[in-house]
């Protein structure tokens, strides 16, 4: 397993917004030498800009030789323009890592010299607190050493799962990439339902947030299967059973609703490819 100090050169981050900024913070937290990092971004968010300045990281350098790793974290929609500009900075040994939704290995490869090593990945926002999960696929040019380096960079923000079938990345995007938004929506909807049923709105918000965060933490810390944790809450013929009869409805419950949502997100990921 590689560590960040095994990276044979600079790490160039292209796009230091929410996701790129969280990754940079994770790398620095794990001891990446700021002198071995550089950022290209015309307007990083203020907190990321402050971190770049405080750590003395080179911002918008267009020289310094080919980086060992170029990690691309701009929006998929600006990718063609941005990749056309940054591709000449890569050398024959540069590993390109993308975290962009939808953008395929084939699309990424088309901007770089033949035989460039490319990893396509999809992280999620809990990366900002080191609790993300990333799913990644390498192209055929990625060496075992480069794969270990990509793994170390992605693992700085949480877990990493490698797949061989690129089509799985679109589905992973719909499950874990977008997934945090579904969980936040659950907290919002639970709060709104509590307020509608009579709780003061601010109290409903606090209860819903504490419940979602506590349930997630319980699942994480105990390692108990979510179905078992659900059963642990559910007394026979009690209040939870009454609610679950609605939520587990085979036609209108969470199951079919989430299946539809995941299918829509995966479809959108495939659309973003072109
Ligand atoms: N936010 C999320 O939950 C997730 C995002 N992603 C992917 O991460 C990528 C970035 O998303 P966010 O960080 O949320 O967006 P963001 O808008 O926060 O960050 C994008 C950054 O790119 C910079 N940028 C714009 N033009 C540029 C250029 N020409 N050169 C260099 N940098 C440029 C912007 O200034 C900004 O700081 C997207 O491709 C998205 O699909 C992947 C998984 C989860
Ligand atoms: O919504 C999006 O397109 C990005 C990718 C996964 C999460 N956010």
Give an overview of the whole structure.
The protein is of the alpha/beta class and 274 residues long. It folds into two domains: 4-169, 3-Layer(aba) Sandwich (Rossmann fold), CATH 3.40.50; 179-271, ProC C-terminal domain-like fold, CATH 1.10.3730. Helix content is 48%, strand content 13%. It has eleven helices and eight strands. Strands 3-2-1-4-5-6-7-8 form an eight-stranded mixed β-sheet, sandwiched between helices. It is elongated. It starts with 10 loop residues before the first strand and ends with a helix. 1,4-dihydronicotinamide adenine dinucleotide binds at residues 14-20, 40-44, 73-76, 78, 82, 99-101, 122-125, 177.
Please give the domain count: 2
Ligands present: 1,4-dihydronicotinamide adenine dinucleotide, (2S)-3,4-dihydro-2H-pyrrole-2-carboxylic acid
Content of β-strand: 5-15%
Instruction: Sum up the overall morphology in one term.
Output: elongated
Q: Output the CATH class name of the largest domain.
A: Alpha Beta
Which fold name is given in CATH as the topology of the largest domain? Rossmann fold
Helix/strand structural class: alpha/beta
Question: Which superfamily, in CATH terms, is the homologous superfamily of the largest domain?
Answer: NAD(P)-binding Rossmann-like Domain
Strand element count: 8
Order of helices and strands: EHEHEEHEHEEHEHHHHHH
Helix content: 40-55%
Q: What count of helical segments does DSSP give?
A: 11
Binding site for NADPH: 63
GO molecular function: pyrroline-5-carboxylate reductase activity
GO biological process, one term: L-proline biosynthetic process
Family: Belongs to the pyrroline-5-carboxylate reductase family.
